[in-house]
């Protein structure tokens, strides 16, 4: 699992979310911040069944700069009544704690699909408390009480964007 830390910032970083289309062949890719060229990267991944997600951290400062949901296993998608997060007033930079993280893992994944939100959960058991840190206007990272990354929440999406992620 990935152990992360958060630093408060004044303004949300520029964030680009790419959904599946004829050019972007994966369901979802989130780029956080502006990088004129690809930084030296620490790649982290989690695969569970056919679910596969990648995290990319800038090797120079350990900041998360990209998350890609590469593949989705349809039978792990549930349709709960996700409550969308209100607009955040505080924003954070998510940083990897390198010496306490496992870069390749096989933690079970469950994907919650709402009308305007998607939550990707990475954990083996139901957690009683997940704390969310907004890293952009419509994306938050959830951690457990030990600061391990357990969730990525996208909210305030259009119905069309949600359909693009899942293909239906």
Short description:
This protein has one helix and 14 strands; from the N terminus they run E-E-E-E-E-E-E-E-E-E-E-E-E-E-H. The chain has one helix at 159-166; strands spanning 4-9, 15-19, 28-32, 41-48, 51-58, 64-71, 77-78, 91-96, 104-105, 109-113, 118-122, 131-136, 139-143, 149-154.
Task: Note down, in words, how this protein is organized.
- There is one protein chain.
- With 168 residues, the chain is mainly β.
- The protein has one domain (4-166).
- It has 1 helix and 14 strands, in the order ββββββββββββββα.
- The chain has one helix spanning 159-166; strands at residues 4-9, 15-19, 28-32, 41-48, 51-58, 64-71, 77-78, 91-96, 104-105, 109-113, 118-122, 131-136, 139-143, 149-154.
- Strands 2-3-6-5-4-9 form a 6-stranded mixed β-sheet. The chain has a 6-stranded mixed β-sheet with strand order 7-10-11-14-13-12, with no helix packed on it.
- The model has no long low-confidence stretch (mean pLDDT 88).
């Amino acid at each position: 699992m990935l152990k992360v830390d958060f630093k408060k910032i004044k303004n949300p970083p520029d964030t680009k979310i790419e959904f599946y289309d004829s050019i972007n062949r994966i369901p979802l890719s989130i780029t956080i911040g502006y990088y004129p060229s690809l930084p030296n990267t620490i790649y982290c991944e989690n695969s569970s069944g056919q679910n596969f997600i990648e995290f990319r951290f800038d090797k120079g400062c350990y900041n998360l700069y990209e998350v890609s949901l590469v593949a989705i296993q349809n039978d792990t998608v549930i349709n709960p009544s996700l409550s969308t997060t209100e607009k955040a007033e505080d924003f954070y930079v998510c940083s990897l704690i390198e010496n306490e993280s496992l870069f390749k893992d096989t933690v079970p994944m469950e994907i919650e699909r709402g009308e305007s939100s998607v939550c990707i959960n990475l954990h083996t058991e139901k957690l009683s408390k997940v704390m969310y840190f907004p890293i952009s206007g419509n994306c938050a990272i959830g951690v457990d009480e030990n600061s391990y990354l357990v969730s990525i929440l996208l909210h305030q999406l259009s119905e069309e964007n949600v359909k693009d992620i899942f293909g239906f």
